[in-house]
Each structure stands twice: as C-alpha cells, then as structure tokens.
Specification:
11 strands, alpha+beta, eleven-stranded antiparallel sheet
C-alpha cells in the first residue's frame, strides 16, 4: 500500500510539472509580437561583451510547439532563443548564426526545463549537447521568467551555482 501511495504522489508531481511547463509555454505566447528593450544587470563589468549595449528581444514567431525570440545585442543580430514544447518536456536552445545566416560553431546549446518551474518561471540545466559544445558550460542553468502585467522578462544564467549573466527586459509600449 505504501508503494502505491508513493507512486501516486510521484506521478501527480510529474504530471503537475509537465502541466506547469505547458502553462509557461502558453503564457510566453502572450508576448508574441512584442518587442522588449533590456539591459545587462550582471555582471557590472564594463569590459563584458554586452556592457553598455542596447539589448532588444522580439517574440517574433509562435506556433503550438515553438516560440522564436531573436535577441539583438547592439547591432549584433546573430542570436535567437528557441523554446520548443516536446512530448518529453520544454526545450530551450540558443541559436547563433554568422552574418551570412550559416550556423555558428557554438550553436543550439541549452537544455530541457527541470521540474521545479512555475507558469511564469522555468530553469533549464545544460544538456549533453551543451556539454560537448561548451565543456566549461556543463553546469550552466538558464532561468527565464516574465511578468505579463508588468511586461518584463528576465534572462538569467548561472554556472557552478553562481551568477554569470542577467538581463532584464521591459516593454516600451
């Protein structure tokens, strides 16, 4: 009887986590067509590649299974964040391209959402593909959160359980 109770609890938590990932995806779709302007808030290092540059994210395309968000850093338009809703969960990838549109050598890194998210916040530990592409990024965890009422979006990266990068975006409308 105890095993049945434990399995029931485990199954309900698993189902709840999957439902939450789908809710996150559906909530993110509410930003489709929106452009948000951001800034780097961590690190405060003026030598960081993104320091002092205008950050622009545009939730450009949304389907039932994929959301693409081109992310511009200054004049650099080489990045797109991709959220894909799969039967096994929610996948977050970083698509990097050269100016000619060809894939960058370091592209499509990211990971699947863990089971601790909410309908407005999900964390994505680095997957095996990321380990191969960026060995030092093996411990990366990307956390994405947003507030539809305030029209804010936060992109946060940890490595070795320590802050590595954070950007905050806001709607200008």
């Amino acid at each position: 009887m105890k095993i049945f109770a434990i399995l029931t609890i485990f199954f309900s938590l698993s189902v709840n986590a999957e439902t939450t990932k789908k809710e996150f995806f559906e909530n993110l779709k509410h930003l489709c067509g929106k452009t948000l302007i951001g800034k780097t808030v961590f690190p405060a290092d003026p030598g960081h590649d993104f320091a002092g540059k205008k950050l622009v994210m545009q939730v450009a395309s949304c389907s039932d299974t994929e959301i693409k968000i081109p992310f511009k850093v200054g004049e650099d338009t080489s990045r797109t964040w991709i959220f894909t809703l799969l039967p096994e969960g929610l996948l977050f990838k970083h698509d990097h391209r050269y100016k000619d549109g060809k894939p960058h050598k370091l592209t499509m890194y990211g990971g699947m959402a863990d089971d601790n998210g909410t309908p407005f916040k999900q964390s994505f530990p680095a997957d095996a593909q990321t380990h191969q592409l960026v060995p030092e990024g093996k411990t990366n965890v990307w956390t994405v959160s947003f507030d539809l009422k305030k029209m804010t979006f936060i992109y946060y990266l940890e490595r070795h359980s320590k802050p590595r990068y954070k950007a905050v975006f806001e709607s200008q409308e």
